[in-house]
Specification:
263 residues; alpha+beta; three-stranded antiparallel β-sheet; 10 strands; 17% strand; globular
Length: 263
């Protein structure tokens, strides 16, 4: 119904989010979900695995056997491969390793926090503006009170170094399947290789090249199909480790004593 209403008012871009890697989810059910989604006249389909962090009730319920386990890594990879296959056959081309579209236009917020600008509204939201990253208090009542009192609801904030900004930019661009050297130089006023060789990321970059996860062209770097598969696993592992790990630290108290440090 929501999709039908959106189509009636002529939205220029309509995206469907599909979730997989659910407890006890089977391949056939996942394939059916994807096929059903492609039957709607939408612009984009985005695939999200269910990420279960260990500080949430669902994790405990799984460990206690009250909810079935998630599929294993082999099934996770197979779900992703099947999704790519079906979506490509039905006219959806990859625009990120987890997003597929019928046009070159894109709706995406997941990796915006990598490079910004992303202004965070809401309790527990994380934002990145320029060289500054912050997280709002994870306590809804405290967030509301701060807004009413005319105060910033920020619980933690930190400056992001140029080295980290370069790494984040490269990772985010590869998430879109291609990084252009010209765009990199415009943003950082330096040649790509000169910049990357000054960072710790240079080792991962050359390993990806050796493994065939990326392809170097005259204009930039492209993520290969093998690279998409590996990135789909590592990308979501990163989300669990870093953003979710940061949020966990801010669940203990609304306004940490050292609120200027986000770590």
């Amino acid at each position: 119904m929501a999709i039908e209403n959106a189509l009636k008012v002529d939205f220029k871009l309509i995206n469907i989010d599909l979730m997989y890697f659910l407890p006890a989810q089977e391949i056939n059910n996942w394939i059916n979900d994807i096929e059903k989604a492609t039957e709607f006249n939408v612009t984009q389909i985005t695939l999200y695995p269910l990420l279960i962090v260990h500080y949430r009730p669902m994790y405990k319920l799984i460990k206690e056997g009250k909810i079935p386990e998630q599929p294993n890594k082999k099934i996770f990879n197979l779900m992703y491969i099947k999704a790519i296959e079906i979506l490509k056959n039905r006219g959806f081309k990859p625009i990120r390793y987890y997003s597929f579209s019928k046009t070159n236009k894109e709706y995406s917020t997941v990796e915006k926090e990598m490079i910004g600008p992303l202004i965070a509204f809401g309790s527990g939201a994380m934002g990145f503006i320029g060289g500054c990253e912050y997280i709002n208090t994870c306590f809804p009542n405290e967030y509301i009170k701060a807004i009413i009192d005319g105060k910033f609801p920020i619980a933690g904030i930190r400056l992001v170094s140029i080295e980290e900004r370069i790494i984040r930019y490269v990772q985010e661009r590869l998430g879109t399947l291609k990084l252009y050297f010209e765009d990199f130089k415009k943003k950082f006023n330096e040649d790509f290789y000169s910049s990357i060789n000054k960072t710790s990321f240079k080792y991962a970059f050359y390993i990806d090249k050796l493994l065939g996860n990326i392809k170097i062209t005259n204009s930039g770097i492209e993520l290969t199909e093998k690279g998409m598969l590996n990135r789909n696993w590592s990308g979501w592992a990163f989300v669990l480790l870093i953003p979710c790990g940061i949020v966990k630290k801010y669940l203990n108290e609304p306004w940490p004593k050292i609120a200027s440090i986000l770590s």
